[in-house]
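Summary for the steering committee. The consortium agreed at its last meeting that each partner would contribute one worked example illustrating the joint modelling workflow. Our contribution is presented below. We chose a case with several input lines so that the handling of multiple components could be demonstrated. No manual editing was applied between input and output; the record is shown as generated.
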Amino acid sequence: MNSGYSNNNDGRTIVEKIVSRACGRKVSPGDVVDALPIDKLYFNEVIAPPAISNFQDDFNQVFEEAFGNIEQGLVQKKKNQKRVFDPSRVRFIPDHTVPSCSVMVSKGISLMKDFAKEHGIMMYKEGDGIEHTLVTEEGFVLPGEVVVATDSHTDTVGAVGALGFGVGTTEAEYALALGEIYDFVVPETFLFRADGTFKNGCCAKDLILYILGKMTESGCSRKVAEYTGDAIKKMDMDGRFTICNMSVEMGARSGIVNPDRVTEDFLKEVAMRHPELFSEIQDTLTKIPKISSDENASYVDELRIDVSELTPQIALPHSPANVKPASEVNDEVNVVFIGSCTNGRYNDLLQAARILKGKRIHPDVNTIVIPASRAVYNQAMSSGLLQIFAEAGANIESSNCGPCFGKHMGVLSSGDRCVSTSNRNYRGRMGSPDAKIYLASPATAAACAIEGKVTDPTKYLPS
Amino acid sequence: MAERALFQGKIVAKFGDDINTDYIIPAYLLQEAWGKKYFAEHAFERYDPSFVSRCRANALKDSIVVAGKNFGCGSSREQAVYAIQYNDVSAVVAESFPDIFYRNCISNGFPALRVESTKDLEIGDSLLIDLQSLSVKNERSNAELRIYMTFEERATLLSGGRLGKVKERLRERLLATS
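What follows is the complete predicted structure of the assembly.
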């Protein structure tokens, strides 16, 4: 930063603006907000069941007392007093291991359905999609909002200019009752400026893997990662989702991109698909210029990247920050997973399909393709991508988190070597602790599926 | 459950940097129970398989886990806190914690204690932890470490979490808006 600005710097980041708007006063990094009101809250089927169960145990007596007092003091009580802070701002999304893979998972989903019905919360169906993909696709999460969900990859929604935080069961349970999170420390922002043009075969995933390699697993701790520069401004929404998604892998509290023309076009498409959201989105579009970071905003640190220098990257076992150029790795591969909240959207599948078109997957490689949502699945079906995957010899599954969660649809055995487009390659993440997991882009994963070893995808693309 | 302000415990595990919550409790177990105690018997089962038996063998009962930087990174699963806490572990002492895990610990009134360096702490050492003066004393070496924590975090920890405060807030809200 130019130090000449520092004495009289009133520029603010998108994070400061969003938090200030949410809590109704001007805040700066380091300030503690006693109770930060949230705009949107969503739950998956991993955490909703214990959160609902605790919500009932912890608060039922409070509800009874409060509504009891009202009954005594007022003329007539209303039936079904509202207990969830605002049902219209909550969504339930079963996505991790669906269709259900165990009796307890099914019991959890039933509890969610009953609670959603009783409280007027919208609940999606198994297979509708992965939570972070669905909430943006459906226009539930919009730019400038404070979003909380029971998953560390809630940072994904930063791609639309929302500020998303993953929380545990207890914070989500309290938020369900009160619509707030407590003792919130306003985070500093770390700026990542990516300029230049991607080489053929390189994409957003290669950029975020490269960044992770530089930053380590804790390099962005307690800070929000803001992504800017020409390469981000030219990037489609699917790429921005990938980048924001993996911010948590370097310890970031969240990741965010300032909304721009690309975001506006995305929102307009959402509005066309969901006419009921038309006026809300129209209103959001007018606010976009006001929520973006100021030119003279202060950042705690900055990393500049020239993406034209990048080649396809791969994270080696057992850390997402253990990154090398794919061309320098030659390890054998027997499982490939293309999907997840990181890389299961339409353009991700398109990159993989370009490489797999007319090819046969290596006979030793079990390849699993999972579109991130029902809408992505249906689009990939009608445009012929699913046919390309099927003819190449891949297994195509309905939308869910798949083998990334390590519970179903391709749990790894000892000795398995898997290239995955997901976000975490911790030892044991996808099954046996003796399996090896590599993280790469959909294009790289597709090339690995053909060759049965780690492969730079560039040679499969027209130059 | 109000947290004790002063307690003594024995170090049963010392880990390096970047211990993620998948290592603490693998995902395949998360949906198999809604309670908290279930996760204790599976703590570190794929990463440090003798962890649970070492905690059980600790005659002092109060166990302490020590780690380097970024303890509890990755997934937001709060079950990672329960897995440690319900093995009679009284505190985790580490050089840093990522936000989600740290907040989950505080929510449960479980002391996640940040200190400058854990390099002089060893398995078997007995530690005296004082949450009033925010210090950790190693009874073997007599060395003292300062605990870094905000006012709000300490207050929440000593109240055993935020449930009392949250219930009070909910009560006021329901009475005001109805």
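The domain at 6-177 of chain B is CATH 3.20.19.10 (Aconitase; domain 4). The longest helix of chain B spans residues 163-177.
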